[in-house]
Amino acid sequence: MTLLEGWPTDRGAGRYAIPAYSEFMPPPRLGRRAYGASDPLPFREGDPFGWTVSEREEGLELAPGLDQIAQQLLESLRHLAAGRAAHGISRAKLSGNPYWPEDLAQRAPGLRHERFVLLLPLALSRTQDDKGRVRWTLLGSSELGPARPLWRSFLAPPGPGPSPEDGPDFLRRLLAAAFGAPAPELADLRAAGLRFLRAEGAASLPFPHWSEEPLPEWLGSLELDPGEPLERVRFLLTFRAFAELPPQIRRAYLAGELHLLPFPGSLLFWGAEPYRRLERELPFAIQIPLQHGIARHEAPSGVRVPQSGWLHEPSPRRPTHDARHGPLRDLFKRTHRWARVHRHEDELAVTAREEKLVHVLFSASAADVGLYGKPMARNAQIWSNEFRRVLDGPSATREEIEGARAAIRAGGSFGYRFAYPAMRVGRYQVHWQRPLVAYSDARSGRATLLTGAPLGVLTAYDAAKPDPARAIELWPRLARRGPELAALELPHADRIDVEKILEARDLRGAPLPRSFARGLARARESPAFERWLAELPALGEALGAQEEPAPDALTYRWSARRPFEVRYWKAIASLAEGRFLTKNNADCVLDPVTQAELAHHERDLAALGDHLLDQHRRAVAAARMAGKAWVGELPLRWRTDFDFPWMGGWLDNRRGSGERNLIAVIPGRDRGEAVVMADHYDTAYMEDRYETAQGGDGARLAAAGADDNHSATAALLLAAPIFLALSRAGKLARDIWLVHLTGEEFPADCLGARHLCQALVEGELRMRLPADRRWRDLSRTRIRGVYVLDMIAHNSDRDRDLFQIAPGACAGSLWLAEQAHLAARAWNEGTLAWNRRAGRRGARRGRRSARAARVPALARHLALRADVRLPSDPRSALYNTDGQIFSDAGVPVVLLMENYDIDREGYHDTHDTLANIDLDYGAALAAIAIESVARVAAAR
After folding, report:
1. DSSP symbol at 328
2. Please, which of 37, 207, 235, 831 could form a disulfide with 810 given CB 3.0 to 4.6 Å?
3. Which residues are within 8 A (CB) of 91 and not within 5 positions of it... i.e. 6 or more apart?
4. In the 8-state DSSP scheme, what is residue 125?
5. pTM for this prediction
6. For residue range 367-391, what is the model confidence (pLDDT) as tens digits?
């Protein structure tokens, strides 16, 4: 594929730095990711210049999103034509605008024949949000100008591929729909009075890449002949600026004798002179005038629209906002991945709090950051009242950010837009230049989209130096697969289940085992599952012929025992309610409220790390594997775009102490491959001790973390002796790495996972052995997969005995999920026999214990339901964990997690203690996780 030439591009120190997502939301990477994972879409075999858009993207995002955009645009344009203030169309955009000159503005209210036809190319791309959703997003108006994307729709792509769209047929359908022209009259478009006039002149084409050439051949037959009488012309198709049209054409249009397609005012977004100037300093600034007119939209359905507008900082010299510019939007609703909001909800609709925008962008004070809100300047573009660049956030340095903050602090009016980077393929960023084709319905006045409108073209730019004049072009293809289209017609819950099965089939490249397909479907036990198979034959074809038997287990002889449960409980108790109290990377926070409430004033994360390393060394020694298994650390440094001097842990990093991931390497026969079992050993701040609305006083105190995440850390400690025994017996085909990641919680924000992924991609991974101060090079070891464990010991009261297997977005992740699903099946089958053993026979469901010293009584082994949740599943919690970092980097990954309940007590609060731990549930999930890792490590 052309865009992947030269891949990989990220090998070498410093070439794949990953910032905290709370500071900079990176672009989604499609095709082949940095570590090698690839997607089945958007590329198809035999169509090297095609870009496939899935049925779901078109049906649930783009179609409703384009309608939503059209309604807002048409309303603004109607206000403009009526001489009223139009939302998003400021005086500065209209001043000297050749597409909306004074004579047109004065006469427009009398244009009764106008149908406001839009042939308006939008710039779209897929971006990532803080809930891990990759969304089609409005960037604004096309940077290729008002005409070029439409004409590219009708040109054949290079190489093999489908035929171009039928241009004359499109124009017939448009004239019939917008103007009611009878079909027979449109058989000959020229005879029906349609003419085409090329866009020429400096004002219409200020940039070379706005050129209409080459035009489709059929358009030549419709060209307006020089001197041709206008009496023969009923419709004129032109993208020429109104001020540059011949006088007789302007007169005929203003007299209502001629229809101009598109509506002249719809082109004004490309005629705003200040933004044309800004384009030379700020990448793609010409997109902005249109983006201003569309309201922010973050809901899962439709097209994502980032907020844009103007802000004003009063100063003695500039006390008020410059009224020439707008819209004035100086408040912002901040969202973040830790919010107690479901992924299928519109977070803006349920969020009441609005913050001053300048604080959202630049303030690093403790009061403005709160628990989850770092400055967002890196995801913003900002310009001055004089339309000079102030900040290009996605490419900015710390010094440039500080310069922008100082400029705004000095006061004045500033334009801005939130800029979430466009999707990447290799080293290219990709935009879709898609025409929005709509018109005003003669009866209702509402915008009506034309079905089957031209799709435009995709343009790929070198992300390091994007230049629209040097674009690689790709042609969009709308997928039309029968089962996927049929799934769109199903009720919401059924649709999600069917889509997941079809998506997993595509990732796997082969039929799915039936038991695994049932694991993907929430309705797996309902009659709906069998009904889908009967009504959608292709769905049945996606499944294997019969159920596969549960596999033999490798590790349950150690973990399906009472001693395992007791050790698991005691390990959690020691970590959560022992001597380790201050376990957040920012500890200890230096504000007076926090300082007054701390039990002690030293950070315990280093001591906790030493304790974990010591536990692993003891396990290695007990297994007589010293010198063969290695225990050490992966040092790193916490770096941020802003300074946070009120965070003690952040200050320690500036002084040189640094952070560390912890690692135990257990050898397999092939030392060139490894499977990783990971947790995070830091804990979050307690919301109910901080938030005044919950009775808090602003103190930032680390939670005990019994479930989040010592339930996972304890599982890794208990896994070590089991894996060491398998290694000694020669059962491991590849290494196992037990990795305790640091800094998953805010404010460090996946710090350890980001560092590990960066080192893997760059080929720079080395571990330090503290015992003898030596270093070992791990960069030649290829990671087969990562199992991230996060919160595994709370059995939700809402849907009991359920846990999630949440794979990342690649085929390798799906294979890991299959292994975990098989491990769960083997566990559940085993419980039938284990619960008949002496001591378990007749045992009841486990009960919680509020005291760390009192181990819950022996209970029956729980059979757990494994719910496989792909990234598209609204209930997948992958985004809320370190797992998202691995997935984005292209490292195969699966999150193993309880049935995450964002509304319960015990998550980021004072109740995350042993009293919230379900031992029978947590021990079972820990055992399944250990078996999953062992299966991958032993697989040939």
Report:
1. B
2. 37
3. 323, 324, 325
4. E
5. 0.96
6. 999 999 999 999 999 999 999 999 9
